[in-house]
Amino acid sequence: MRYCKQCILPDTRPGIFLDDDGICSACHGHRDKETKIDWTSRAKAFETLVAETKTQSTSYDCIVPVSGGKDSWYQVIKAKEHGLSVLAVTWRTPARTEIGQRNLDRMIEKLGVDHIDYTISPDVERRFMKATFEERGTTGLPMHMALFAIPIRLAVQFRIPLILWGENPQLEYGGNELERLSNTLDADWLSKHGCLESTDASYWLGKEGLSETDLHAYRLPASPDFTVRSVFLGAFYKWNSYENTRIAQDHGFVYEQGAERTGTWDFADIDCEFISLHHFLKWYKFGFTRAFDTLSVQIRYGMITRDQAVAEIRRRGLDAPKADIATFCAFQGKSEDWFWAVCEKFRNPDVWVRSEGRWTIPDFLIPDWDWGKPESEMEPS
Ligand SMILES: [Zn+2]
């Protein structure tokens, strides 16, 4: 495992490539944002897109997929600044937090937009998550499938010509040069980067008793008779999570300062109790945690040094999201032993080595990392 020399991302992270100087594609993405991308012409391109959208729309101009989080506030604010009429669409997580609900309610009220809170049967969500967790080691697949499919399907059905997504993840967290400079979220992007494990809804048919009807909400429109443009706002305006939070706060977004749910940001991932599990599984599969991502962004923003980020990883330790794991197991009607046994199934042998009765990662970022006691490492303390 190799780590970027500028940030702390390992080359096991999907989409991360280290160049000959040991600099990762996410750091190159940040450099692109500062030097390579002409933001003035991108802003003009957005104005053109808005004008074209206005000539095509017959009701709402655009759908903004929202969770209630800081980024979705920013997306709605930007859309409205450009005079776009917005239909906000949410895939409703089965584990919405109290603060997530509050922010969503406040957003609809304070930003003054129409909203669909699309709820899939919790029993379907439960069975689908069980199937993807046990077979692919991901709890986040149904979430990703639904939150991409629902806005796309509604846009086609309601004849809404534009969908305004948030950041371009390949620009913020690492991708190849073409992907970093792209602005489009299409079927190709979804299959490569949608966290769908190269599957679609049909693949899961019959697993955990999932029926055609159960899977409706997760399906993309089969042969759409209406063209929807589906773009990342972060491809037109320079994305900055801290700046977005400040703008969202100015309009009424709230978060609990110092209450970190996952990673090192108290203002992110606060809407859903299950998102932390999606991030946590990366420890087994790729040998890093959400804090590696957020601290690396902070390094790129010039807020901390690489040494400070390394020290923070050491200070936090593994930091498993125990409360959220307990909530997930209760939702599934399963024991936590089941959860840990499934995690263990997905421990990646290309990353992990078993020695003296415990699992370790050779050449880990923190040489004196506490790998736990032999045999008991998996037990939450
Ligand atoms: Zn880097």
UniProtKB/TrEMBL annotation:
Keywords, alphabetical: Transferase
Top-level division of the source organism's lineage: Bacteria
Keyword 4Fe-4S listed: no
GO molecular function annotation: transferase activity
Cited NCBIfam families: WbuX
Protein name: N-acetyl sugar amidotransferase
Organism: Pacificispira spongiicola
Classification lineage: Bacteria, Pseudomonadati, Pseudomonadota, Alphaproteobacteria, Rhodospirillales
